[in-house]
Every structure is written in C-alpha cells, then in structure tokens.
Design a protein that fits this description.
The complex is a heterodimer of chains A (46) and B (787). Helix content of chain A is 72%, strand content 0%. Chain A is mostly helical. The mean pLDDT of chain A is 85. Chain B has a seven-stranded mixed β-sheet, sandwiched between helices. In chain B, strands 7-6-8-14-9-12 form a six-stranded antiparallel β-sheet, with no helix packed on it. A six-stranded antiparallel β-sheet of chain B has the order 17-22-21-20-19-18. Chain B is elongated and about 110 Å long. The two termini of chain B are 13 Å apart. The chains are: A mainly alpha (46), B alpha+beta (787). At the A-B interface, α1 and α2 of A face α4, α6 and α7 of B.
C-alpha cells in the first residue's frame, strides 16, 4: 500500500512540475509565435 | 468544380528575377532596378545565403521593392520610453517563409542602435526597439522596404491585447486540461483493471479521491471558457453548444464527487476532462487560424484622424483636425496630400485622384468652382478650397455610414453549429430527465442510481463529436486557405461562401491590376520612353509609375515644371521637352480611346504612349471557372461605360453596369438578393465598401483600401484572382464534410443513447465510445487537408 502512495505522489509531483514548466513558458511568451519558432530553428544566428 | 477546371493555363517561360522571382525580360537578371538594388544590399551585408534558404510562396506578394513606397507618418506611431529607447510595431506585407524573418532580423541587427528587431511570423508583425533619435524610424523602415517588404505602422490596440489574452487563456486551459486528463485517465485505467481483479473498496476509494483531487480544480479552471460563454448566451435568452457542454461537465463532476463521498463504484471524472481537452484543442486551433486574419484586418484606417491646413483670416495657416473645421473655412491642400474635407475649389488648378471615392482610375481636373470630396488625393499644384462639409458630413463619412447600415441589415447569419445546438440541447436534456424519471418513478430504483444512469446519458451524448464536427472543418479549411493566400476574417464566412450562387465584381483594382500599364513600346522607341520616364519620375501621377517601370533605370530629371491637368515640361539646352495631354503637346486630331500621354522633344517627332487597364492575368480563366460552377458573374463599376464594356469583354462578363455610385451599387446588390440570389461581392475601393457590406459575403484583394479590407469577409493576397474561385470551391467541399461529420456524430448518439438509458454503459465504455466518435469526426475533417 505504501508503495502505491509513494508512486502516486512521485508521478503526480513530476507531472505537476511539467505543468508548472508549461505555464512558465506560456507566460514568458514562448507560445506567441508558433509558426516563427518552427522556422527559426533552421537558421543560425550569424 | 472538377479538378481539371482548377488548372490554369501554363504561363510562358521567362527567366525569373534573381531577387523577387517574377518573370523578367529575356537575358535580364532582374525584373526591375529595385530588385537589383535589393540584391546588392543583401549581398553587401553578407546575407546572400538568404537566396539559397528561402522558398518563395507563390500566393504571397513577391518581394519586389516599390518604386515609390507609400509614405506613412511614422512619428505618430513611435512610443518613446523614459530610458531613451523608442519602440514601434509594424505589420509586414510580403513575408514568404522563415528565411524572410531571418533576413529582416539580420539586416536590423546590423543597424547601430537597434535593440530589438523581432518578427512574429504568425501575426506578421515586426517589433522594433532602438536608441538614438526617434526619427530613425524612417531609416530603419526604409532599409526593410528596400528589400521588397511593405511595412505599415500598426498600433497594438486594446482589441489586439485582449485577443492575445484570450489566446493565452485558451492555451493555458488546454495545458491544464491535458495534464489532468492524462493523469486521471492513467488512474482510471488502473481502477478499471482493478475492478476485474478484486480491487478492495479501500484502494478504489483512494483512487477516486486522488482523481477527484486532480480533476475538480482542473474542471473548474479549464472549463471556464465554456462556462463564461454559456452564461453569457443564457443571459440573452438564447442557447449555444457551450450550454450542454457546461451543464454536462458540471453535472458529471457533481455526481462523481457525490459518488466519491459515498464510496460508490462509478466516477466519470476522466470523461469530463477528456471532453474539455478535445473541445479546447478545437478552440485553440480555431483561435490561431482566425488570429492571423484578425492581425491583417487590424491595419489602421488611414483615413481617420486626418489633419488639414486651414488658412487663417489674418494670414498664415494652422494644422487642425479635419472634424474641427467649420463650413466656410478656407483649406489649403498641397501636392500629394489627401483632402480631408468636402469643398469647392476657390483657387488653383490641379488634377485629383478620386479613385478611392468614385472608383475612376484616371485623374480628374480640378479648377475654381469644382466640387471636391474628402478621400481624393491632390496630384498637382496646391489648391485652396472652401469647406462645404467636414467630419461626419462628408461623402466619405456617408460611405462609412452606408456600410454600417448595410451590415446591420445583413442580419445575423445563424451558423450550422448553432442551428444544430438549438435542436440538440433540449432533446438531450429531455432524454436525460426522462431516463432519470423512468428509473426512479417507474423502475423503482434508488434516486442516486437513477441519477447516475441519467448522468451516463448526458456523458455519452455530451456533444464532443457534434461540437467538433464544424470547428474541426473550419480550422482545416481556414489554414488551407491561408496557405493559398486567402484570409478568412469572419467565423461564418466559410459557411456563407458555400451558399453563394452569384458573384459581383468591381472593375478597377479588382478585375484589373491595381495600376495602369503602358501599352507595348517597340524597342526602336526606347530612347523616347527613357526621356518620358525621366520626366515622369519627378511627379506623383497614376500614369507615372507605369512609364518609369517600363523604362530602363534612370535618374529623374531636375527642374520639371508641372502644368496641372495638362502635363509636364522641362527645358534643356536644346529646347523644351513636354509630356502630357494631346492639347498640351499641340497634337492635332481627336483623342484616341483610352488614356494616353504625348511626348514632344526638340528635334524629334512627337511620340504617343497609350495606357491600358490590364485585367489580372487569370481574370478571364476565373470568370470561366465561376460560370462552369453555376455562378452568374456580374460587373458593377463606378467607371465610365466605355472602360467597363472593354473590361467586361476582356474577361468574358456579359452582364455589366457602369457609372454606379456607392448607393447604386448597394441597390443593385440588394435587388439581386431580393430575387433570391446569394451574392459574393468582390471589390477593393472605398466606394465598394457599402456594397461589400450589403452582399451575402464579400472579398477584397490585399491591395484594397483599408476600409474595404475591414468590411470584407475574406481578403486575398497576390496578383491573381484565382484565390477567390479556390475559396468558393473549398467552401463547398467544407460544407459537405461538415454535414458528413454531423451525420456521423448524430448516428453515434442514436446508437449509444438507448444503451446508456438502459443503464448498460459503464465509465470505461463511455470513455471509449466518446474518443472513438471524436476521432472519427476529426479523421473525416482531415480529408479536407488533402486533395
């Protein structure tokens, strides 16, 4: 039983971390130009 | 329309211009001097890799620099910050691909003092931040325009900010719903597996509590877009798809919570969350597709807030806002200035470009006693006007009012999804209620169990597939049209477009290319053409760019004298050179058909240059395609009968009307609509604005007046008319797919509801059935992306 609780806690914490990360990325404007981001990766900054 | 009807005649092979890719003269590397200069600049900055990396988008405007880029008053759009930096936002026209973004950003990065020059490819906007003088905006914008892009200053207004917030809120809700739905589904699968392997009630209860802890906050937060919309629409006494979604989700969450508290066996958290996730996905895609169109439409109305120069009684003059000018005031209008008021010419001789107001392509003469209207441009010498109407009294303002009135009359088109929702919502809720009463009253089941079965009816009918049926098609069709250079501005445009059975075109700038073109000039007359172009380069006149474009690159002549409404003269060592009308150049004989210019030089015979309004390259083919598709094409123009008849014959339209005022155009459209036709109006001028608004659905080229683009339901880019026909074809296909989707979704409900009502549907079956129907609908919609 303990192992179930432990696994539940760990997996939810990891998932929650991912969610927080996503919300941070959204807030910092990284989702504002998805088309541009897809193209930018192909060019180096010279 | 068949696939063969879609094919266009192959164009003759010309060498492509090394910069913009347009056909250029045989043997030439560039199509024009502007492109050659742009190529130089790019090579000089060491950015030549641009040409290898880019992919030219045939639907977008070619990156050909304008000979005389339209001047915008940039200073008004610059925002200065306390730290000495300046910021401005611009809309970019002519972006082809990622390489263009790279090129623009690299060129700006090489400019001293530029802190940020970042292009947003989705909204096609450039954000510029620089230090130094605020006036450097002109230099920076000039650099980019020299590469062939057009920049339009753009105020990120309150509307755009609210729009960005909505977009972010939707993505946030999607992220939260996705996180919760994924985790809850994992736990639920564990629970369903456990149910077959003697999981103890304590473990099951634990899993229920953990899922409740995850699901309830997510349902509250992620469902907010739907709850807000449902509450708003219910307040107005109507209903839409968000109502059953909200009721279903809230009810299911409530019942599941009650079941969790009571230690029951069935919870439906995962169904509620999955429903929200699927629906939010559709909303986010829809918002993105339409966000692009909105970004284009947000371009400023250049006509608003115009300033005029008022001559003061005691001498001198002052700049005042147009609407504050009193009737009877005297206003000075300089060369190249747009007139901001209606009035009568008191002094001065000039020619006016009235194309915006009347749609006439050629300049009209203006002299003392003539009436002039706001929106026309003074092409020649300065004029003094006595104001007869200003602000809301002008013909221009009248046009805007006509548009508003026509839009109000057009009424609200009820989209397919809402029509379905109106019938669907009561049926679903009555079925659920009947199920509950049936089990509780007739079947004698405990209230809790009856409620659970009723809830399962609500869940399986939760209009996941129905709600996806229309938006999924719209998203795919809109993004496909966007790639073809057509922006859908209105959410209902696609559905309205599918029902169109008649098309009305404007002439100038819509069927014809936006600028007049020079008739073919034999090579032997090259020297004469070059001389004419040197004179023409010095002035602003609708015919001048055509002359300059046709001639080899050369310098503008110095000391050109303009004779308003007549022509130009330039005195060189050998004598006087004249370029202008037949009378001005002293040529005997009656005027020929169509606009012309004459050139007289000392010691040479007079030369005639004829100008033609060229139909767009594919105009005739598009008209033929429309006719083949059973649509009646018609030409409505404000121009004279001669020019209209010629254009109608050139593109193959038999039904045309000339000399129409904006009001007459609206009357024609409405008479046509009254006879049961659903009219698509395609137009570009301000004078088409009311007709665009009055039509069932409307389209404008991207070169159109701002006002027309704002009114139109779709805006098409590029030099061709083909996108209009493409959009019609795709809209009809999209309507077909929407109907199939709705049939699929309703068929699924017809099958599953009896099962649910008889209490046979368990949570896992509900989840599986819901996903399957949603995927079937999405898969069917995706067919539209191909073929």
């Amino acid at each position: 039983m303990i192992v179930v609780l432990l696994l539940l806690g760990v997996s939810l914490a990891m998932g929650g971390l991912g969610l927080v990360w996503f919300l941070w990325a959204l807030r910092s404007g990284q989702y504002d130009d998805l088309d541009g981001a897809a193209e930018r990766v192909l060019f180096d900054d010279e | 329309m068949s696939a063969t009807a879609l094919a266009e005649p192959a164009s003759p092979v010309f060498p492509a211009c090394a910069h913009c890719g347009a056909p250029s003269a045989p043997g030439a590397r560039f199509c024009c001097s502007g492109c050659a200069a742009a190529f130089e600049i790019i090579g000089g900055l060491g950015l030549g890799t641009y040409y290898r990396r880019r992919v030219l988008d045939p639907a977008a405007r070619a990156p050909r620099p304008d000979d005389s880029p339209p001047r915008h008053d940039l200073a008004a759009h610059v925002r200065s910050h306390p730290d000495g930096s300046h910021e401005m936002s611009l809309a970019i026209d002519g972006l082809q691909c990622g390489a263009c973004v790279w090129l623009i950003e690299q060129v700006l990065a090489r400019e001293a003092g530029v802190l940020t020059g970042r292009v947003n490819m989705t909204t096609r906007r450039l954000r510029l931040v620089w230090t130094g003088a605020a006036g450097r905006a002109d230099v920076l914008v000039g650099r980019i325009e020299a590469l062939g892009y057009r920049l339009i200053p753009f105020e990120p207004g309150a509307l755009a900010a609210a729009d960005d917030r909505t977009g972010r809120a939707l993505i946030r809700a999607l992220g939260i719903a996705g996180f919760a739905a994924g985790n809850v589904m994992l736990l639920s699968i564990g629970e369903w597996a456990g149910a077959m392997q003697d999981m103890g009630p304590a473990t099951r209860s634990l899993l229920h509590w953990v899922t409740a802890f995850l699901a309830l906050p997510a349902i509250v937060v992620a469902g907010r877009p739907f709850y807000a919309s449902a509450i708003a629409v219910l307040r107005r006494g109507r209903t839409n798809m968000d109502v059953p979604i909200s009721v279903g989700v809230v009810l299911v969450a409530g019942i599941s919570l009650a079941d969790t508290l009571a230690g029951g066996t069935h919870t439906y958290y995962e169904s509620a969350l999955m429903l929200l996730f699927f629906l939010l996905l559709g909303r986010v895609l829809d918002h993105r597709a339409r966000g692009r169109a909105r970004a284009t439409a947000e371009r400023l109305l250049a006509l608003r807030g115009a300033e005029v120069t008022v001559a003061l009684a005691g001498g001198g003059s002052e700049r005042r806002r147009a609407e504050t000018v009193a009737i009877g005031d005297r206003v000075l209008v300089g060369m190249g200035e747009r007139i901001g008021i209606d009035g009568v010419v008191e002094a001065g001789e000039s020619s006016l470009d009235a194309s915006l107001v009347t749609g006439e392509s050629l300049p009209v003469r203006a002299g003392p006693g003539m009436k002039v209207f706001a929106g026309t441009v003074n092409l020649g010498a300065a004029l003094t006007l006595r104001v007869s109407a200003a602000g809301s009294g002008t013909l221009l303002a009248e046009c805007v009012r006509l548009i508003e009135a026509a839009e109000a009359r057009r009424g609200r088109f009820v989209v397919l999804a809402d029509r379905i929702a109106r019938a669907y919502v009561p049926v679903v809720h009555v079925t659920a209620l009947t199920t509950f009463l049936g089990w509780w009253v007739l079947g004698g089941a405990p209230a809790g169990q009856a409620l659970l079965i009723a809830a399962s009816v609500l869940i399986v009918t939760c209009p996941c597939a129905v709600a996806l049926a229309v938006p999924s098609v719209q998203v795919i069709a809109a993004s496909r049209l966007f790639r073809q250079g057509v922006l859908l501005k209105s959410a209902t445009a696609l559905e309205r477009l599918a029902e169109v059975d008649a098309v009305a075109f404007d002439k100038t700038g819509t069927l014809s290319e936006p600028a007049l073109a020079l008739e073919a000039v034999e090579p032997a007359r090259g020297a004469a053409l070059a001389d004419a172009a040197r004179l023409a380069a010095a002035i602003r006149h609708p015919l001048a760019p055509a002359l300059v474009a046709a001639a080899a690159p050369g310098l503008a002549a110095d000391g050109v004298t303009e004779h308003p409404g007549a022509g130009l003269s330039w005195t060189g060592p050998a004598g006087e050179t004249r370029l202008g009308s037949r009378e001005f150049c002293g040529i005997a004989g009656a005027a020929a058909a169509g606009p012309e210019l004459w050139l007289t030089r000392p010691g040479a015979a007079a030369e005639r240059f004829g100008f033609v309004e060229r139909p767009r390259a594919d105009a005739a083919a598009v008209i033929a395609r429309l006719r083949a598709a059973g649509l009646a094409p018609r030409l409505l123009s404000g121009d004279g009968p001669g020019a209209v008849a010629r254009m109608a014959a050139a593109v193959g339209i038999t039904d045309w009307a000339a000399g129409l005022t904006p009001v007459a155009k609206v009357a024609r459209i409405e008479a046509w609509a009254a006879s049961g036709r659903r009219v698509l109006m395609v137009g570009d001028g301000l004078n088409d604005g009311p007709a665009l608004a009055a039509a069932f659905v409307s389209a404008s080229p991207a070169s159109a007046a701002d006002l027309s683009q704002t009114v139109a339901d779709l805006v098409f880019q590029g030099e061709k008319l083909g996108p209009v026909a493409d959009a019609l074809t795709l809209a009809r296909r999209a309507r077909g797919v929407m109907r199939q989707n709705l049939a699929l979704a309703l068929g699924y409900n017809a099958m599953i509801v009896p099962l649910a009502a008889s209490g046979l549907v368990t949570p896992w079956l509900a989840a599986a059935a819901m996903s399957a129907s949603s995927l079937a609908v999405m898969g069917n919609s995706l067919r539209l992306a191909r073929g």
